[in-house]
Amino acid sequence: MSFNEIRWHPLLGTWNIVASGRATRPWRDVKCPFCPGAPETGEGWDVISLDNRYPSLSTTPVISAAAPSFSETRPGYGRCKVVIETPDHEGDLDTISFKNLVKYVEILGRETEELARDPEIKYVAPFRNKGELIGVSIHHPHSQIYALPFIPLKIERELEFMTRYNREKGTCVICDIVKEEQGGGRVVYSNRDFILILPFYAQWPHECHIYPRRHFQLLSELTAMEKESLADILLITVAMYNSLFSFSLPYMMVIHQAPVKGQHPQYHLHIEFYTIHRYADKLKYAAGIEWGYWAFTYDELPENRVKELKQAARKAVERLGKQQYSPLGVFQP
Ligand code: ZN
Ligand code: ZN
Ligand code: FE
Question: In this predicted structure, what is the pLDDT of residue 308?
Answer without folding.
Answer: 96
